[in-house]
Amino acid sequence: MLVAMRSSHKEFTVRAVLWFAMIAAYLGAPAYAEVIGTVVRAQGTWCDKSHQQCGSQDFKGLWRMYPVHRDSKLVLVGKVNGREAIVIRSRWGALETFDCSNPRELGCKDPLNLGRLIPTEPEKNVVTAFFDAVLELAADHPKIYDNLRQGILRTRGSPGPLSDGVVELREEALSLQNIFGDWDASDYVLELCPLDDMAEPKCPDDARPTKYSWDPRRPTLLPVRSVHTGLYRLFLCEISSGIPRRTPNSAELLVARAPQSEQLANDFRQVVDATRGWDNTDSTAPALRRAYLYTLAHR
Length: 299
Known about the structure:
By secondary structure, the chain is of the alpha+beta class. It has helices at about 1-25, 125-140, 140-150, 175-180, 260-275, 285-295; strands at about 35-45, 45-50, 65-70, 75, 85-90, 95-100, 165-170, 175, 185-195, 210-215, 220-225, 230-240, 245-255. The radius of gyration is 21 Å and the shape is elongated.
């Protein structure tokens, strides 16, 4: 049994390495500039004939946030029932649905007409700059992009998700106005953990949270120690039988000092404002915004 477990772990590791290598090659500069959208969700098994081996035994279909290129050829593979569909967010912000039950798709027997993703007169704006930055991150740091991609599958606890954002570091304290937003005034238990180069939190084994009183009318600072500029994850914690534990409810923070914090916060706010309307129909939107926060950290 131990041998089987080791074999399974080795197989998973090999697949992960191959996945990262494929993303790095697929999105290498300047290829990411040819991306015209990313997959939001799919029903049925879809494959990109131009960039994937559709007949491979390990092929599982397109994943959410899969980058669609100008030369991509998206086709259905395996058993087809006519109710398949795929939804793609174009690089210019529009959401395009390819529904195989719709007569105009002709049953999706041929590669999809991806020209529908490209506007007649493409223009540069906040959304295209946002996608440029995210896709460059995917090309340069595929492991981080994958961590963010998988993060959209995680559930978050009540009373609602904390908001990712840029926070200002003042002496040994953080301003959390951009994170708590309009949360109700109350006492919370929080833990701040730095992120490593792979976007994973470096927390102690046992939670060591800090009590924090939040009031949107009179925001207070969160006292911190040994915190520097960079990326962190802020966990909302709860205490059960006197033992604190981290909940799934967390936010990514980009810690910066003024005046840089003001510029970074403004840039991130523009993206949030431009994409907030996506959230009801696009579960990848929070992950894409989080990826953009990572790009701001490397300016």
